[in-house]
C-alpha cells in the first residue's frame, strides 16, 4: 500500500468539515468536539503496538505518558480510556484496607463561598479514624476546574497542608490528595501558572484529553512509579487494556499541540460573551472564569424545558 493511499480522502475531509460545523453550534459542553484534520492525520501516522502485551509498550502511548509526567512533575503516567476509568483506578490504588471513604466536592451541598471547596469545608467534613458510624476519610478528592470555576492554587495548598498534617494511627497510611483534573489545563492557563504547580500538592492526578483539548477519547493519570505500576494492574482489571491505543495517544498529543496555546484566548472569549449576556439581563449561576458559562435559569424564572426549546 503506497503512502498516498493513507492521505485523507475528499470524502473524509468533507465529513470532518460537516461534523465540525455541527459541533460549533452546540453549547451544551466542551465534550462536543470533532478531531481536526491534524489529529486524524496523527492517527494515520501513529504506531500500532500493543500497550499491554508488548514489553516496551507502544511508542505513541509512551510519548504521551512521558510528556504528561514531565508537565505534571510526577514520576510516571498512564493512559486510560476515560476520566471515569482514570479516577476509579486512582481511588482503587489509594484505597487499600477498608473501612474508608472519599471526601469530594459534591454539587449537592453548597460550598462555604458558593463556588469552590475551601479548607474550612474539608475540615468540617473529614471523618476521623475510629468513628464507628461512618468510614474514615482516606482520600480528599478535589476537582479543578468545576463547572468552569477554578480551585485557586493557594486554597489547594492550604488543603494539602492540612491533609498532610492530619493525624492517623501508627501503621496506617496517611490521607492522600487526588484531583479530578479533567480540565486542569484550563485551570493552569487561567491562573497563569504551570501544570506542575497545579498538581504539586497532590499524590496523583487524572486529566481528561477529550474535553476542552478535543482529542477523540482518553484520559491520563500520573503519580509515583510505584503508584502507576499498581495502576496498570487495575487498568487491565477494569477493561482498559485495549489494543492499538497508540492511535488515540497520537491524537491526544496532536490535540495538546493545537489547543493548549489557545486556552487563554478561549477564556477571554467566554468572559466577553458572559458580560454581554449579563448586559442583556441574563443571570449567571457562577463566574465565567474559564471556558464555561452557567446561566441561573431559576433566578430568571425561565423553565429549563423552555430554554432548551428556545
From TrEMBL:
Stored Gene3D superfamilies: Type I PLP-dependent aspartate aminotransferase-like (Major domain)
The GO annotation for biological process reads: glycine biosynthetic process; L-threonine catabolic process
Write down the Pfam families for this protein, in alphabetical order. Answer: Beta_elim_lyase
What cofactor is needed? Answer: pyridoxal 5'-phosphate
- Listed SUPFAM superfamilies: PLP-dependent transferases
Q: Which UniProt keywords apply?
A: Lyase, Pyridoxal phosphate
Give any GO molecular function from the UniProt entry: L-allo-threonine aldolase activity
A Gene Ontology term for the protein's cellular component: cytosol
Where in this protein does the record say N6-(pyridoxal phosphate)lysine is found?
211
Q: Where are the transmembrane segments?
A: none
Where the record annotates domain Aromatic amino acid beta-eliminating lyase/threonine aldolase, the positions are 27-111, 114-298
Entry's PANTHER family?
A: L-THREONINE ALDOLASE, L-THREONINE ALDOLASE-RELATED
Q: Which family does it belong to?
A: Belongs to the threonine aldolase family.
Q: Protein name, please?
A: Aromatic amino acid beta-eliminating lyase/threonine aldolase domain-containing protein
The organism encoding this protein is Clonostachys rhizophaga
Task: Please spell out the taxonomic lineage of the organism that makes this protein.
Answer: Eukaryota, Fungi, Dikarya, Ascomycota, Pezizomycotina
